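Let us walk through a complete example step by step. Step one is to write down the protein sequence. Step two is to encode the small molecule, magnesium ion, as a SMILES string so that its atoms and bonds are unambiguous. Step three, shown after the inputs, is the structure prediction itself.
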Amino acid sequence: MDVRFEHVSLTYNRGNEVLHDIDFKLPDGELIALLGPSGGGKSTILNLISGLLQATSGKIYFGEDEVTKKTALQRGVGMVFQNYALYPHMSVIDNIAFPMKMAKVDKKQRLTKARELATLVRVDDQLDKFPSGLSGGQQQRVAIARALAKNPSVLLLDEPLSNLDARLRVEMREEIRRIQQETGVTTVFVTHDQSEAMHVADHIMLLNDGFIQQISTPQSLYETPANRFVSRFIGDPVINEISVNELENVFVFPDTATSIGIRAEALVAANGQQPQIKVMVKEAQLFGREYQVRLLLNGHELIATNDVQLNPGQVGMVSLDMSGVHIFNEQGKRLNKEVQTL
Ligand SMILES: Nc1ncnc2c1ncn2[C@@H]1O[C@H](COP(=O)(O)OP(=O)(O)OP(=O)(O)O)[C@@H](O)[C@H]1O
Ligand SMILES: [Mg+2]
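Step three: the predicted structure of the complex.
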């Protein structure tokens, strides 16, 4: 089911508007990540899709069907939250079957379906346990199976992995991807972790302060950020940023350009074809297999993840791979114009 917002805004109890004129279409069958810093409006959008919140203005569609005024029950979404909220006094199989019990599906049928879902999420060897006897990851698997039990129109996941440790988060995000692909259900996944969003999503909606910053595939968000906020939020290490003044002796920038973002991997060993920039190497460190060099350009620190073939303490030249270089105007909008070399 595709999900569409038309000029949706939301104000909580006569207070400030927290979502401003939100317009998007989430394609059917995709996994879409809602990404952004705390307070950006991710959960609010999720609750507007679910019907737990009503839009202050604008329209919401599921496919051709306008659902703006419909209740959560009528919309038939499945939801999973950060705190698993399983029923503690029910076994795994009963937890998964519960929504079907409420919908008065007959017992034999719902147990068959619950077992299928348990197999899908790989808790089929835990059916008689109670939630307190499960690990965090297993509890989230059960919560996902329960959310899928009523064949939801859309599956909504609000930071489902944030209570898990780092390694389990990685494992579970792959699991969510697999389950989403096996079921084909349109899924909206909220996270504030850019790497998580980059790894699982078909499309990412990046939000800040109740505005959509960009909706794009993970790769194009990284390669062609719409603005400075997007370029900073996506990518690790964080993009290097300096004033265009620092490189005026090497490049010609469009008149309105004020700052330049340089990805860590775009700082490369000096080569004959590219303009060269004078830097001092502050230090070089190896983290596992990742190499990081701290460079100083007129006293501004830049992080490079390539071997720039200079030793710490040495002054020398580096070049830029222009595909990882973005220029921005004063308002932070990315300028697409080519930077020219002097
Ligand atoms: N029930 C509420 N009443 C009033 N304001 C609220 C309410 N819930 C959220 N807000 C405000 O709406 C804005 C968006 O909140 P929202 O919960 O959607 O952010 P979020 O992106 O999910 O953040 P987080 O990553 O912290 O979960 C915030 O400024 C928040 O203070
Ligand atoms: Mg939230």
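Step four is interpretation. The two ends are 52 Å apart (CA to CA).
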